[in-house]
Design brief:
Blueprint (H helix, E strand, L loop, with lengths): L1 H40 L7 H36 L9 H7 L4 E11 L20 H13 L4 E4 L2 E3 L5 E4 L2 E4 L2 E3 L3 E6 L2 H10 L1 H13 L2 E12 L23 H15 L1
Antiparallel strand pairs: 1-7, 1-8, 2-3, 2-7, 4-5, 5-6
Helix pairs in contact: 4-5
């Protein structure tokens, strides 16, 4: 019994040693692989939430640029295939391209900037922190007023805004089309500057924001610009759930242009 017990202890000792060696080798292998991955990637891995957010935003920007390139390639190949088949695709009216955001635009207009109030200024005793930040409804009020004032095209934080655009504020950051922005928030609108200013002045919601801006130091500025440059919309414009009632004219001249294109194709056939 003693001998059997002694051998059992030796077997346990040898097994423990073997497991220890395997674990050490595995740990060294994992460490080497991780070091190699970092070296091959040529960049530092995110260490906290902020770095992770920045890395993801950069990844979204890269993917957006890639999508834009692929969309342009699809359009080019589609056009080439149609030409090879002898089919002529009529160009849509200019108004359609502007309204849908598929083309960049330039023109006169306004640049409106909204910003959070400084928290270290005197006289804020008893003021709710909620009053000191720009909210989603503040941006929506400004943009709705600009649309009502005849804006022909608009951008928010450098991204084109169209009818299907959606943004939301989470805390003190803005989420728009997969990207995150911090204040100040910049809205640019192409249109008649006088009409746009008048629309901002006539909006009760914008007036309420301007009142708070004067009271607690929220950022507010409106500047005219003779040559605003707004980029094309980078997202998808396909509608999955929305439909237009039969007989509704979406854009002036669009139905007439489509009918003219059909007649031209029929005559050619």
């Amino acid at each position: 019994m003693i001998e059997r017990s002694h051998r059992a202890r030796r077997r346990v000792a040898r097994g423990t040693a073997s497991v220890t060696v395997v674990l050490v080798l595995a740990g060294a292998l994992f460490a080497a692989n991780a070091k190699f991955a970092r070296a091959s990637a040529g960049e530092r891995h995110p260490q906290d939430l902020r770095e992770l957010t920045v890395a993801e935003v950069e990844r979204v920007e890269d993917l957006t640029a890639e999508v834009d390139g692929l969309r342009g390639e699809v359009d080019r190949l589609t056009d080439a295939q149609a030409r090879a088949a002898g089919t002529t695709i009529a160009d849509p009216p200019v108004a359609y391209g502007i309204e849908s955001g598929v083309v960049p635009v330039t023109g006169t207009g306004l640049t409106v900037t909204l910003d959070d109030a400084p928290t270290d200024q005197p006289g804020l005793d008893g003021i709710s922190p909620d009053v000191l930040v720009v909210h989603q409804q503040d941006l929506q009020s400004v943009m709705n007023a600009l649309w009502a004032g005849g804006a022909e095209a608009m951008s928010l934080m450098g991204q084109r805004v169209i009818s299907t655009s959606a943004f939301r504020c989470v805390g003190n950051v803005l989420r728009l089309q997969g990207q995150v922005y911090s204040p100040p928030y910049v809205v640019r609108a192409v249109g008649d500057p006088d009409s746009l200013r008048a629309a901002l002045a006539a909006s009760p919601e914008v007036s309420a924001y301007r009142s708070d801006a004067a009271a607690v130091g929220l950022g507010w500025s409106v500047q005219s610009d003779d040559e605003l440059e707004l980029p094309a919309f980078a997202g998808s414009t396909d509608l999955q759930f929305a439909t237009v009632p039969e007989g509704t004219e979406v854009l002036d001249g669009l139905d007439a242009a489509a009918e003219a294109a059909r007649r031209k194709q029929g005559a050619a056939g």
